[in-house]
Task: structure prediction
Amino acid sequence: MTDASLINRYQLAELGALLAEPARAAILLALMDGTMRPAGELAAIAGVSAATASAHLKRLLDGGLLALHEQGRHRYYRLANDDVAAWLESMALPSATRVTPKPGARDAMLCRARTCYRHLAGQLGVALCEAWLQRGWLRAESDGMLLLPAAADALVHAGWPSASMHSLLLLRGRGCLDWTERRLHLGGPLGVAITSAMLDAGWLRRAQRNRALLPTPDGWRRLAELGVRIEH
Result:
């Protein structure tokens, strides 16, 4: 779902109403890490009753922001797709996060590196996108971003699994507006694949309490080899 299709299908006022309710915003924020969660868990996160959560979930489903996965008798909710996640990231979900463009120290870890649905965001995500564009490893086109063959040797030399390189070069990404940095990080299938590979390789690990991503010492070193540097 693109921004244009969202606005064409649902009135802008309705989208604003969906995000303006703190419980619905909390539900959406909880699903920004790419997980699927049952209604009871989302009700607890939002601080509302099961019946109230059910009404909120129905509105979010009808609004096209959530999708439902049924497994036997169990029902799980997730964000509808990457496009919805990117749109929510750019909107910053102020009613749920209470985060300003310059968050406080307690949010520093989240701002440094986090998941935006399933891809890398925050200072580290922006630094990766900008460094690889400057090096000519990424190319921005009208329909997205491509990883270029010039990046392959450098990535493999830095420890990237060579077996995954061919498929990586076939994927498209897109610029996703980062809500803390107000610049673009790399989203879309390419961004998801790169983040997944870094997690699998141990360059990043997930925080337990939120959607922050924690670069390991080895990850900092290898990312620096690839031109990705931030203060830490």
Notes: The first strand starts at residue 37 and ends at 38. The mean pLDDT is 84.
